[in-house]
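INFO worker-7 received task bundle
INFO bundle size: 2
INFO processing item 0
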Amino acid sequence: MELRPNRIKRKLAAGEIAIIGSGFTHPDDIDAIGPLGFDGAWLEGEHGASDAAEMGNLTRACDIWGITSVARVNRNDQGLIYRTLDRGAQAIVVPHINTKAEAENVVQGGKFAPAGQRGLFTSRQGYAVDNYFQKANDETSLIVLIEDIAAYDNLDEILEVDHIDAFFVAPSDFAASMGHIGNIGHPDVQAKIDGSIEKIVKSGRTAGTLATTENVAHFVDLGVKLFMVSVLPWVGAGLQQFRSKAGIG
């Protein structure tokens, strides 16, 4: 048995753009979007229902379609990080990383020795895989959320931490941390978001962010390679178009 490839990790390593879809809470959702071309499925464990009990089936559905299971945990806890990996996730997203030490903690929980100190368990991804502990780090992605003004202030040091695949700038929390809750479009917020991305790209690391159809070209121009998109606005837009064609107000 060969270790399943991590599609997002490989695309980012090749300098290509990778797209993660969000809004999926059931394996059947992932089956439905499997043929559409997403590189990954965002499994929401910070604000949503995805936890250890569901993670096995959610990640199995991702494996069937060859898309990366991207699980967001709700805290920077080493045990939680590697338990989520043990349940089959190929990528971990950790919120509110504001210091170099916090970024290093993510690596310690998400990588086997010598890079980290992830607890030794074969995990579902490793069943029947020869030398799994020697291979797993190469197919495991770690993504940290840059979503506070404190992270912006400490970004140079955070970017020094190895083994992190993407530094993902999260706009809503970023705005709130600057005193502009609910106002992502405030010029000061936009300047700090763009400045963070520019600094990440200039350092040679991979930048990610939440994007929409309306602003994705702007972020591509800045050098962003990893995007998370919610499918719900697309569903809503499609419904409105349908209603218009049907003559419904």
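INFO item 0 finished
INFO processing item 1
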Amino acid sequence: MGKKWLDIVYNEKSSVRLKEHYKNWASKYDNDLIDWGYAYPTQVKKILESNIKIKRNSKILDAGCGTGLVAETLNDMKFNNIIGLDYSADMLKIAKSKKIYKKLIQESLSKKTTLRSNQFDVVLCTGVLTSGHVGAKAINELIRVTKNQGYLILSIAESIYEKLGFKNEIEKNNFQISKIKISKPFVALPNHESSATSKIHIYQRKLT
């Protein structure tokens, strides 16, 4: 399938079929994304080195973790308290084999999760808040599980930021979060002609 996988998963409307697509793609997912120049690990590393300061034992949620490509970079940076959450059991199976997560949870971000409120120092969600995947309503759930004064690092494609309600949802939650920085636009998969241009949004949860 090669480059067609990206178009398939981002145009899928059915969550059941989406899970099946990821099941079929899982074994080749890492190689494909690396070939396409997957930019999120580098972007997240920059943020953790330059924009926010957290301890190495900080509790991190990798929300929509997939096979763990971003967490591999976190692990290389000596962060070792990472929880992964994803909808696809097949992607989680590969993530588990890397032995970089303290715990892996199979749940959808499209509804309220079983995660306890106010527990993570950092909530990461990259390549997930987009068409065909998880909508803007998940923003509130990601805030809910973030500690007071913890950080949210969210990637959102420019083309859908307003169109799919992300801008509106973030503005509605201004009483809970304060903006630290929004990155310059970058292409998430520079070697793939269908890749979106994204920005990383960095917020801090306010004291409540």
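INFO item 1 finished
INFO post-check item 1: The two ends are 48 Å apart (CA to CA).
INFO post-check item 1: The mean pLDDT is 89.
INFO worker-7 idle
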